[in-house]
Amino acid sequence: MAKTKTASYVLTLKLKTELWQEHILEKRFEIGRQLYNACLRELLKRYKKLQNDKNYSELIKQEKIKERNKLLNNLYKEYGLNEYAMHSFVKPMQQYFKKNIDSFTAQKIATRAWQAIEKLIFDNAEKVKFKKYNEMDSLEGKSNSTGIRFKNNQLQWNGLNISVIIKKNDIYAHMALQDRIKYCRIVRKLIKNKVKYYLQLILEGVPPKKMNRQTGEIKYPRNNGTVGIDIGTQTIAICSEKEVKLLELAPSVNNIEREKRILQRKLDRQRRANNPHKYNEDGTIKKNNLKWIWSKNYIKTKNQLTELQRKLAEKRKQDHNKLADWILSLGDDIKVETMNYKALQARTKETIKDKNGRYKSKKRFGKSIANKAPSMFLTILDRKLSYEGKKLKFVDTLSVKASQYNHFTNEYNKKKLSERWNDFGTFKIQRDLYSAFLIMNVKDNFKEIDRKRCFDTFDRFKKLHDLEIERLKLDEKVLASMGI
Hints:
Order of helices and strands: EHHHHHEEEEHEEEEEHHEHHHEHEEEEHH
Strand content: 15-25%
Radius of gyration: 27 Å
Oligomer: single chain
Helix content: 40-55%
Number of helices: 14
Distance between the termini: 59 Å
Strand order of the largest sheet: 2-6-7-1-5-4-3
Structural class: alpha+beta
Shape: globular
Number of strands: 16
């Protein structure tokens, strides 16, 4: 009988490591990397053998029905392409390293290798990547009873006991530790050019509510209500009964972007200066097997860039979490349009010239999406909703057409991307905010806009909209895409 899946969350605690303990952990992470690569190599061999099977070639061309899927599963088992087959494969290797790696941790490493190849088999990835030296940054167990475990405020693993730092005034951590620990994960991070180790506890249940230490009040209390979201590549429009806002996604990221570009250019100059034998006269890279030369200054600059990108990722995640908490304080019935971010990242196929006869760039929104991570924000929002037993509701974009609809005339009018305002004759409404308003008033089938509800709630929306536009006019850092 399969285990029932329960809600879980993660608590990250810093490990108080000594130098000799760090050496042991470093050794174990390296063994884990080698085991992962060995499992991945074996899976690739098995997959290539399967691809040469005539039965497999015929089956993947057929329509996806139950009988066809059963036959495919039988072939996967026959060629040892499943998670449990990899557990058997890694077992004899783990015995050789049993003083450092326990059987449960080895099985989890094999599972990770299987998950990577599974994406390749089912066309969710184009290729798999082997982990280079120092690229294995996490190891985890399967339970808190054996292998990697947390006990008596310590990480205990194969004779290694490392204290965990839990501050006395960290109310959140003390409350979280009351929940059952499912399993543990050790994470290695490079922070300010120093390797630091953390213990992540995967706990059962939902995370405790964060409280204000001074007042004892719950931060961002949850409320009932409907919220409409129109999310773009850099901005997000939010509409509820209480608030109407047009905000920039992850605003902290912009503070680092300029410094990142300077370091990237410096890195490129150093790379070219150290490796003239690797470049053609026109600046393109030669296709040869000569080794790259990395100077000390190059490595130093590369580490600076790595640290900057780590900061960028941390600040982006922090901004997303704060925004998600604020939206949940407006309401719990949250609607958003479905978006294909992969399509927005792709370059345009059509070659177009501007007025001066120059070719326009084929680049679209790849950089904005990479920096602002709108899809990541929706994932965080959906996860926080799941703690309340609810889900993020996705509106059918093709049916609703929020950016084209006019609830006054009940008509759809296409607009250019550069048109940021909807003109209703006597007044104008910002396009993104109006889309969020319409999404908020979508019917329960998520395919139609409730026109009656739009008329009932429009006056309130208009007042809040005008207040938000006045606020944005006073803001000096407004994005051009907002049209203010």
